[in-house]
Design goal:
The structure holds two protein chains of two kinds.
Chain A: E1 4-5, H1 7-31, E2 41-47, E3 50-55, E4 67-70, H2 88-94, E5 99-103, H3 116-135, E6 140-145, H4 147-158, E7 163-169, H5 181-186, H6 191-198, H7 203-211, H8 215-226, H9 233-246, H10 254-266, H11 269-272, E8 276-277, E9 280-281, E10 291-296, H12 304-308, H13 310-313, E11 319-324, H14 330-333, H15 335-351
Parallel strand pairs in A: 4-5, 4-6, 6-7, 7-10, 10-11
Antiparallel strand pairs in A: 2-3, 3-5, 8-9
Helix pairs in contact in A: 3-4, 6-10
Chain B: H1 2-10, H2 14-34, H3 37-45, H4 49-92, H5 110-155, E1 160-161, H6 163-182, H7 185-215, H8 221-283
Helix pairs in contact in B: 1-2, 2-4, 2-5, 2-6, 3-4, 4-5, 4-7, 5-6, 5-7
The chains are: A alpha/beta, B mainly alpha.
Chain lengths: 353, 284
Amino acid sequence: MPIKLDPAHIEREWRELSGRLARLHEELRRQRPVTLAASPRQAVWQDDGATLYRYLSDRPARNRTPVLIVYSLINRPSILDLRPQRSLVGALRDGGSDVYLLDWGYPTPADRFLSLDDYVNGYLDRAVREICRRHDCDEVALLGVCQGGTLALCYAALHPQRVRGVITLVTPVDFHAGESVLYRLCKHIDFDRVVDAAGNVPADVLNAIFVSLKPYRVLSQRYVDMLGLVDDPQAMTEFLRMEQWMYDSPDQAGEAFRQFAKDCYQRNALVRGELRLGDHAVDPARLTMPILNVYASADHLVPPASAAALGALAPSRDYCEIALDSGHLGVFISGRVQRAFFPALIDWLRDHD
Amino acid sequence: MNHNAEAVSRHRTPALAGIANVLQLIFQRGMDLISDAGLLSRLAAASTPGEFEQALETLRQRFEPELDDIVRRWLEQTAATLLSWQGLITAVGAGLDPRANPPAQPLGPLQHKRRQLDAGNAALAALRDAQLEFAGQLRLIAGNAIAGFGAALQSQYDRELGLRELFDLWLEASEAAYEPVLHSDDYSASLGRLVNAAADALRVLQRVRDEALEALRLPSPRELAAMQQRMQQLRREQRAMQQALADAQAWRQELTELRAELARLRGTGRARRRRPRREGSRAD
């Protein structure tokens, strides 16, 4: 049977697309620049490139335990606060918590030898101490996002006395579980050779790796679909915010990247109990504090099995998990998904205050 | 095409970062061919499975040189980035022709230069081999995408197709072809060899660059890296000292408070001890 292709129809479609393209061009010009990080905040502490932000609120926090968000070293935390209606930090703040965010900044060539130990036992520990000092308290609640969740778990295992509880959000724990495509891609790479050659790992290389997981959707379909948004300025703004976030990537400090890739992805040292940060062994048996583990059931970067492995790893008697019907990014940008778990986060923080 | 070539060239390590662009180029060239009016009318006019298969074969044949072109440009792009380094090797190894077969045993400092040149050429050849091997994976993806696209087209015979539908069919066929390859051991191994070869090539060329700069008494990235490492160590030591100082101050503060408390307690004790006497004296 012949397929049905009408040249006149295709020509009409092409003309319409060209018209949309011209309008899109105008709209893009009009909308530039878009703003991210909507919630008011104040930098309260700085240490090299790392900055601790406190999110401001009109009302005093109801919970006594401050929350510290630990974001991934890859990409920027602005996705947690793209706009007020989709803001994780805004939801936590309005839910009664005093919210802090540790922004790792953009590593420069001088930061090439920053190790995971420097990040976890250095910047993160000092940020926690600073918060405790400001609040005259001994503990904080940690909310780790993606790789930041792994770092938060390391911190909690190394300094349990300073951690009231941990929330992990789409966090890899067992790096070999669930057919992890990132593990598969890392498997045969010699990261010593790569980091020795590259120093800091350039953001565009990492971006290319993430893009290459879904190259046709990310590099083609997104922009074809964008033509459909041209008459909806609000949707276009959302698109541009997301676009800005996706390509606002810091370089990776070479040593920290080397260790994370080798120890976590290749050796799976965290679940084996063999991970060491500097002179300190990260002992998962010390993860006895309350833990809430939130992951996405259709996550292509952190397979659900990788995140859910925390349940078996941590001996905490107060362990809960929430599996969201979402992909990795849906957790941060989908209103439907956020309505499903923001209240649970707020309740958990209140109940574990 | 030029736009995409520029996009590839922006990356500092083109053999690695260029992969996503190469995949995108394959997709884009395929879409260009599919939306070509001549090919479209052949596909639309095909009334038997044989004619349809012939039209698809035409697509396959026209895609082949496009694919060759993409791979050729990718290799050229990498080579162009590394060419300046190769030039440097040649410059520092003055008197050695990089293209010539090794002459009789070079003498004096030329021995070292010869080794550098050989190592550089070997690393670049290994990188090229790894790229060609990886290109095999790309060809596999492209071939499977065309086959999948043909099957998808045939399943749509009862619908009128527009440009968007053709795009979606090509997208789905490309993804369906790519996903299993991405998850295969062959792809992972091939990617590993490519990345490792690119890193080796960079290292060899960086060593030559460092030596050249040091010979000119200019700071080399190697020296800068050593300095950065030392600086990082000093930062750690400084932080440890600051922490020790803060701890000591905290202890001191606590000690002061304890002393004050002790003094207060002693004072209270003395007062208590004195009080009965006073009371006693009053009672007296």
